[in-house]
Write a structure and sequence with these properties.
Radius of gyration: 28 Å
Number of helices: 9
Low-confidence stretches: 157-174
Largest sheet: 2 strands, antiparallel
Helix content: 55-70%
Order of helices and strands: HEEHHHHHHHEEH
Mean pLDDT: 80
Shape: elongated
Length: 174
């Protein structure tokens, strides 16, 4: 048999082993493709456990200088929640933090609100007196006063304002 003939013979055969039994596909939960999810409590004593784990991770980052990845691994959270809770903590808004930890406001919604507030505060602190005066003239002193001092927000709104979550003052203070 020549070398060309043996090569053609090898190319014409299938690569699958004969009589191979197909194996079931595993889904990562130890099952065979049927979705059985582990059930565990999401709230304990009125607190959202995922938010509490994220908060613990954020405290590790702030208090001990641990990386976000390590803090999330050590607390059983994920880096997104740890980063989000860092944003919420940075605002020093105790009512928002309490609402998140009690599960009244989602972590992602609170982080979105906190990022906007942090950017606003940073821009205000960096602005010169001339820029602040121009801003006041453009918006109007009465409107600024009414929106900043006369109103008391009792709900937290998302980016589009449609996903407003009403939280009573009693729920936030508890």
């Amino acid at each position: 048999m020549s070398m060309v003939q043996s090569l053609l013979e090898r190319l014409s055969t299938t690569t699958a082993a004969p009589n191979q039994v197909p194996q079931p596909k595993l889904n990562g939960n130890g099952g065979n493709g049927v979705h059985h999810h582990r059930r565990r409590p999401q709230f304990l004593g009125g607190d959202c456990l995922a938010a509490m784990r994220g908060y613990a991770g954020a405290r590790f980052v702030l208090d001990y200088g641990v990386s976000i990845a390590d803090a999330s691994h050590w607390t059983g959270s994920n880096p997104v929640y740890v980063t989000a809770l860092l944003e919420v903590i940075t605002t020093n808004d105790a009512a928002l933090l309490r609402a998140v930890l009690h599960g009244h406001v989602s972590v992602s919604l609170a982080a979105e609100r906190a990022k906007k507030l942090n950017r606003l505060v940073e821009a205000y602190e960096e602005a010169t007196p001339a820029i602040k005066a121009t801003f006041r003239e453009k918006i109007g002193a009465d409107k600024l006063f009414d929106e900043l001092f006369a109103s008391t927000p009792t709900s937290f709104a998302g980016a589009n304002g449609n996903d407003r979550i009403a939280v009573s003052i009693q729920e936030v203070r508890s």
